[in-house]
Amino acid sequence: MTHQHDLSEQELESYRESGYLIRSHVFSHTEIATLRSAAERAVNHAVDMCESGKTYILDGKRFVDINHVTVQFEPGPDNQQVRVIEPVNELDAELDQLVVDSRLTDPMRSLVGTKDLALWTAKLNLKRPREGSGFGWHQDSPYWIHDCEHVDRLPNVMVAFDDADVNNGCFKVIKGSHKQGCLPGKDDGSQLGGFYTNTNCFDESDQVAMEVSAGSVIFFDPHTVHGSAANESDHPRRAIVITYQPAGFPQLKSGQIRNV
Fold it and tell me: Which residues, including other chains, have CB under 8 Å from residue 210's CB and lie 6 or more apart?
């Protein structure tokens, strides 16, 4: 059975070879405006929730856990600027509805390799103008491999809420790096170093900047090495990353099953 937004054979082959795939202008300007507002509501909600959460510091970065929701702030123990919220879909109905949008789920059926899907996680990435810090090269699989026996079947899709380019710290990938599977992390003595990919394991010259317009989507493999630079522009760079899995399995952080 085919679906309206299924990937073509050419798109599938490109994804398998490169470890990522871009579809441009998937969401309209009106839809993206609605999602931007939803993202900001989620941020405000998360900040309010932090007052009752558990705070901890890792490598100089402040994290707050509120039940199974984690809020990460920009570097600095007293920085008030939110950097990441995971899972974010539970904090706003518009973001939760995005999880079941066929423009995301139809392609994901091919990438997961099953007709029935479940949510694994959904996180909001924020890079405020002149304040948003970068993310070092890493894979998602090392974060997840201890919580999941099917880590190869956890593809991601990023929905760009803002125009993204190198100036505002756009998403970057190491093309073809997914073919090597789960790579070793850094051994630099830091608390989080093991989650950042050892740069001896890939060639940084293979990096590709995902310069996309707002409303575009980027599908990428859980083993694809990716990262980003800081936002040095006057424009925000916000995006949601939704990860799917075969139906019937629990979500990463809540442990609840959310079939799509």
Answer: 20, 22, 158, 164, 170, 171, 172, 173, 218
